[in-house]
Design a protein that fits this description.
Shape: elongated
Strand order of the largest sheet: 8-7-12-11-10-9
CATH architecture of the largest domain: 3-Layer(aba) Sandwich
CATH superfamily of the largest domain: P-loop containing nucleotide triphosphate hydrolases
Bound molecules: adenosine-5'-triphosphate
CATH class of the largest domain: Alpha Beta
Distance between the termini: 53 Å
Largest sheet: 6 strands, antiparallel
Mean pLDDT: 85
Number of strands: 29
CATH topology of the largest domain: Rossmann fold
Radius of gyration: 46 Å
Length: 677
Amino acid sequence: MIRWKDVLKPITAVVNHGHSIKAAIQCLTSQNTDIAFIENQGSLIGYVTTHCLLEQIDVGQSIEEPIRYKNDILKVPDTIPVEFFHNVSMVIGVDSQGGISGYSTIQHARNRINELELIQLNEMIHGAGVGMVRVNNKFEIEFMNETAESILGMPRSFLMSRNYKKLMTTEKDLHRVLEGETLVSVNSQINFKQLSGDFYPLSTDGKITGFVHMFYLREDFEEAVQELDFVRHLYSDLQAVYDSSNEQILVIDEKGIILRVAGKFLNDFWETGQAENIIGKHIGEFSKEFQPNIFDLCVTQKKKVTSIQESHHRTRIWSVATPVYHEGKLEKVVILSRDITPTESVYANKERDRKEDSQASKTEKRELIYRSDKIASLLENLHRAAKMSSTILLEGESGVGKEVFAREIHTASPRQDHPFIRVNCGAIPEQLIESELFGYEKGAFTGADHKGKAGLFELAHTGTIFLDEIGDLPLNMQVKLLRVIQEREIVRIGGTSTIPVDVRIIAATNKDLKAMVADGKFREDLFYRLNVIPFQIPPLRERKEDIFPLAVYFLESFKRKYHINKSYTPDAISVLETYGWPGNVRELENIVERLIVLSSEEWIDRDIVLKVLYGDSDKVKKPPLVLELMPMKEAVAELEMQLIELGMKKYGTAAKVSEILGVSPATISRRMKKIKK
Ligand SMILES: Nc1ncnc2c1ncn2[C@@H]1O[C@H](COP(=O)(O)OP(=O)(O)OP(=O)(O)O)[C@@H](O)[C@H]1O
């Protein structure tokens, strides 16, 4: 708000009422001013300007004659806001003590207001890099801000009062602005500077008095647009990433109100169909449905926390809550969650319940953990095959869990209450295999138990025998095994009678049995006998969805074993998920144990996982290697592109890459545009 005292000028020339034109002219010249006020009995009653004195002489008045003065003046308290009154050409300000504080013609007040408003506007846009120039209706520069000075590269002292139109070349006719038209996004050039900006007409009492030009340097603007474009793309890319991710991202304000849900909405956990149903609600409303309330944990502990939350319907999610602070004050909590409800088979549960009842299960139970569709459909087929007694061959790389699947078949079969006997064909010394498998009669050989001993086939009677590492079975044993499969009877070593055995055979191998047959290392007839119902267990790298629940499962069991409390950071999980796992689930289990032991903190973070999986990566920096000659400019451009691509792959954001490469984010975005082309 602009007040009268902001625009008043001091009164310097006063002449008495009735004084001559000559006296007035003398007063004006001695005070070096253009306006003199007329006083009568201590009060100002009018004013006279040099211009009107000259007019009086011009019409033939003598300079000795008394002055004719204007009296359309108004006295106002100088603290009230400036406003204009009809039929008043001069305002005199009165201060709080009743004294005269100054004067202003209406025209001066209007100009001053324009100027002060521009100064205020300039303060508002200060820092935004916008230049501002005001000209009068003769195109003379009357005001310009500091940004305009620095954009144009010329000092204000040089530019003031110059004809702006003559300094500028522009595609539009500036007279149109003086006719009241606003011109936007006009390109112009001053002092070789390319500008882009808007022209706004200024008017007083409906009369155009000039215009304001607001502008910026075109190259800055283009850079900003590019940056905006880049950010927009980044935003939509991120949105796509969130939408396709397996994680649920929850943003909660400091009071507990759920502001936003991104990524995969875990509706089984919330027990509501859509994310919209929880947005805007207090997290506390749901905390009765699941335990623990990780938001409260995060707020009270004032740090990142992780927890496995379980709903009443036994949906388990793994969550990390991170507090977000702004100027030391908690602003938000971001919770990243994943569903880790193990898709346990009903049979595994049955077996567990059964074992829990029995004395035998003192050791930790092994569950079959998975979330991938691949394993889900494999299990469907396994369960179907389990119902019959046919021989099953499980093929798969070492460590994929063939034994776990063999047990699953057994538990899903009608033989579940009968023995499950595992034979590791590769681990038994060759000379003992026969007696282990088929048993022996008393005195069958030196060192044999004098009572004789039943073999594993006999022990597995009515149940299942699991022949692991079947490819390691020596050829002579292969013949004997073939006989058992065909005849369903065995003869103990040193025995003469046959013993019938009713067993379901499950064989497993990590070798290519077909290739072994071709090489003469495995009997073809046995191969066909075993290969009745074959199943391929996919390696872990082909079912990445299983990595996370398995990693959590192993972590939980090691936590119980070692009595310690550790958790993965989300970054650590990403590293685990992108690793190739040549040793499959067994390797994952071992790595998790190593991580537990090696990580010193409460968190198993990305760095320790990288270190354990890939070893120390502090390799010596290799200088770039040039293999062929090319123009230097091309080589530099190529290297730049490669650095940016590498950086984007590693860090994903232009901001981080620009920091690492030591250039501005705008440079990165420009180069990336080129890469995309
Ligand atoms: N889906 C799973 N859920 C839980 N644990 C699993 C799963 N798959 C494998 N494991 C665990 O991984 C380890 C290796 O599994 P297993 O011994 O069954 O593999 P394998 O395929 O038989 O290996 P090999 O060919 O070397 O004998 C075991 O400790 C097993 O309990």
